[in-house]
Amino acid sequence: MKPVVALVGRPNVGKSTLFNRLTKSRDAIVADYAGLTRDRHYGQGRLGRREFIVVDTGGFEPTAETGIYHEMAKQTRQAVAEADVVLFVVDARAGISAQDHEIASYLRRLGKPCLLVANKAEGMHDGLQLADFYELGLGEVHAVSAAHGQGVRSVIEAALDQI
Ligand code: GDP
Ligand code: MG
């Protein structure tokens, strides 16, 4: 069985861009519209000889009780349940949001291997900008730029090493 890596995080942080980078496909829908990927979406990734499955998800709203956000939350929980390791993606430029805190607390309670990925970090040399994210209580902050491919290999390597 190939390990399964789930990408979770609030809408618009760059999960689908990261998915495309990891799977080198154009399959996941990437758009400037928040939360466009409403469903789970699977792709194949490879790091050297190690193959893995990547699961993209819609934006996560853990407390949503109705409608499309409820469905997205359900899909995300299922994706997380299936995963061997979770990449929790946050937006390095936007900083921490209340939603990020909610997702972090959900993931901490879950106790599954989870890496915190600060995306959109291209051109950010200031460690201070990322220091805030340690507040989420998920350990090391992995700075990446999915759009530019920076840090992506090293974060997937770290993720696969946790399994
Ligand atoms: P998702 O909703 O989390 O799946 O986010 P998307 O992958 O659809 O990306 C949302 C927006 O962020 C799009 O406009 C992307 O082009 C942009 N984006 C994604 N990755 C990066 C990145 O590494 N740097 C920058 N600056 N923008 C990014
Ligand atoms: Mg998406």
TrEMBL record:
<comment type="function">
    <text>GTPase that plays an essential role in the late steps of ribosome biogenesis.</text>
</comment>
<feature type="binding site">
    <location>
        <begin position="119"/>
        <end position="122"/>
    </location>
    <ligand>
        <name>GTP 1</name>
    </ligand>
</feature>
<comment type="subunit">
    <text>Associates with the 50S ribosomal subunit.</text>
</comment>
<feature type="domain" description="EngA-type G">
    <location>
        <begin position="3"/>
        <end position="163"/>
    </location>
</feature>
<comment type="similarity">
    <text>Belongs to the TRAFAC class TrmE-Era-EngA-EngB-Septin-like GTPase superfamily. EngA (Der) GTPase family.</text>
</comment>
<feature type="binding site">
    <location>
        <begin position="9"/>
        <end position="16"/>
    </location>
    <ligand>
        <name>GTP 1</name>
    </ligand>
</feature>
<feature type="binding site">
    <location>
        <begin position="56"/>
        <end position="60"/>
    </location>
    <ligand>
        <name>GTP 1</name>
    </ligand>
</feature>
<protein>
    <recommendedName>
        <fullName>GTPase Der</fullName>
    </recommendedName>
</protein>
